[in-house]
Specification:
Elements lengths: L2 H26 L5 H16 L2 H4 L3 H21 L3 H4 L7 H19 L4 H23 L4 E4 L2 E4 H21 L6 H18 L5 H16 L1
Antiparallel strand pairs: 1-2
Helix pairs in contact: 1-2, 1-4, 2-7, 4-6, 6-7, 6-10, 7-8, 7-10, 8-9, 9-10
C-alpha cells in the first residue's frame, strides 16, 4: 500500500479517537450524563464518516476503520471502558451496529454507481435526526407508545420526521438530484420515521440507514 492509501485512514482513526476522548473528558470531568455524551459521539462519528467517500479509495480502508472500532466497542462493553458511550440505563446494540452499517453503506455506494446520496443521506438522517428525536421525546414526552416493550413517543417521531424532511431536501438540492427528487423528499422521511419507531434496543442504527438506502436503490 502507498502512503496515500495508509495515511487517510490513520488520520480518520485519530479523529475518531479524539472524539471518544472528548466524550470521556466531558463525562468524567464535566459531569455530562452518558445520554448526552453518547449523542455527541453518535452525531460526531456520523459527520466524520461523511469524509469516507472523499478521502478513502478502497473498501479495505473502510473495513480497517470500521473493524478496528467495532473491536474497541466490543472490548469496551466487555471490560467496562468508555462509560461516556456505554453507561446508559438500557440495553442497546446501537454503538456496535454503527460501524457495521457504515461499512455496508460504503460498499453499497461503491457498487450502486448512483452517486454520493446513497452514502450521505442514510448517514446524515441517522446522525442528525435520530438524536433530535430522542431529545424531543425526552423534553416533550407526548403521545407515549411502546414497541416490543421499548418506549417511544409521538413527539419524538414527529421531530424525527420533520428533521428527516429537512435533511432530505437539503441533500437532494445540494447534490443536484432532479430525477425523482420530489418523490425522495416524501418517501425517504416516511420510511425512515417508521424504521426509527420500529428500531428497538438501538437497532434503529441499522433499520434507519438500511431502509433509506433501500428506497434510494429502488427510486434512483
Amino acid at each position: 500500500m502507498t502512503p496515500k492509501e495508509i495515511v487517510p485512514p490513520l488520520v480518520l482513526a485519530a479523529c475518531f479517537l479524539a472524539l471518544f476522548g472528548v466524550a470521556e473528558l466531558l463525562y468524567h470531568f464535566g459531569k455530562v450524563r452518558a445520554e448526552w455524551t453518547r449523542k455527541i459521539v453518535h452525531t460526531g462519528t456520523g459527520l466524520l464518516t461523511l469524509l469516507f467517500p472523499l478521502v478513502l479509495v478502497s473498501h479495505w480502508q473502510v473495513l480497517f476503520l470500521c473493524g478496528s472500532f467495532l473491536l474497541i466497542l466490543l472490548a469496551s462493553l466487555r471490560f467496562g471502558w468508555l462509560p461516556s458511550i456505554n453507561a446508559i440505563d438500557r440495553l442497546s446494540y446501537g454503538s456496535i451496529l454503527f460501524p457495521v452499517i457504515v461499512y455496508a453503506l460504503f460498499v453499497v455506494f461503491r457498487m450502486a454507481g448512483k452517486g454520493l446520496i446513497v452514502f450521505y443521506l442514510p448517514i446524515l438522517i441517522l446522525a442528525v435526526c435520530d438524536p433530535l428525536a430522542a431529545l424531543a421525546g425526552k423534553r416533550f414526552p407526548l403521545g407515549r407508545y411502546r414497541i416490543c416493550g421499548c418506549g417511544k413517543s409521538a413527539s419524538g417521531s414527529a421531530a424525527f420526521f420533520i428533521a428527516a424532511v429537512a435533511v432530505t431536501v437539503i441533500v437532494v438540492d445540494m447534490l443536484g438530484i432532479t430525477q425523482s427528487g420530489k418523490r425522495l423528499c416524501l418517501t425517504v422521511p416516511v420510511t425512515a420515521t417508521v424504521s426509527e419507531a420500529l428500531g428497538i434496543k438501538g437497532m434503529d442504527n441499522l433499520t434507519i440507514p438500511a431502509s433509506v438506502a433501500t428506497i434510494l436503490w429502488l427510486v434512483l
